[in-house]
Automatic annotation (TrEMBL):
Species of the source: Pengzhenrongella frigida
Top-level lineage group: Bacteria
Molecular function per GO: electron transfer activity; FMN binding
InterPro entries: Flavodoxin/NO_synth, Flavodoxin_CS, Flavodoxin_dom, Flavoprotein-like_sf
Name the record gives this protein: Flavodoxin family protein
Gene3D superfamilies named in the record: 3.40.50.360
Domain named Flavodoxin-like: residues: 3-165
PROSITE patterns listed in its UniProt record: FLAVODOXIN, FLAVODOXIN_LIKE
Pfam hit, one: Flavodoxin_5
Amino acid sequence: MRSLVVYESMSGATKALAEEIAQRLGEVGPVRVVEVGALAAEGPVLGADVDLLVVGAPVHAFGMSRASTRLEATKEKSPVISATIGVREWLEDLTIKSGLRCATFDTKVLTPRLPGSAAKAIDKNLRSAGAVRACPPRTFSVNGKSGGLVDGELSAARAWAGTLIPSS
Ligand SMILES: Cc1cc2nc3c(=O)[nH]c(=O)nc-3n(C[C@H](O)[C@H](O)[C@H](O)COP(=O)(O)O)c2cc1C
């Protein structure tokens, strides 16, 4: 199984999860983990050789980030990792093969627990573009806007990635 793990991240929490997920998926086949702006710079068409697409992003203002929320994030921490575009903008131009398996995740603060999901929005967009769900969207928790992952979330992400591997 060839996997592509795409992430957007401001201060590194979502990136750390993406790398953990990629490491687990790498146990069963080739995997690439890439920041969304870097991938978008390669063009809007996703390689036909990908079997599983995993996309992760932080929740900003109850959903996917926008240019304005990413600017706001730079006030929390600068420089940010995803400094060019976010998943929202990448999805606008994305072309994928029909039937591509996809899984989405997001990061959001543990307390106060706020409504809203980036993962659900990404999932909806990917399925509109022709992807099929490998599993429901998943949320992982962080300690405040740039306080890093809540303890246990890296191992939870690893376990979640394991559920994306089809049993042979
Ligand atoms: C501008 C901005 C808006 C945010 N809005 C929300 C929100 O609506 N709900 C929430 O739970 N967390 C919110 N957060 C916290 C982010 O989800 C958190 O910073 C992110 O998960 C950290 O991941 P990263 O290190 O990969 O950027 C917001 C953060 C920023 C910077």
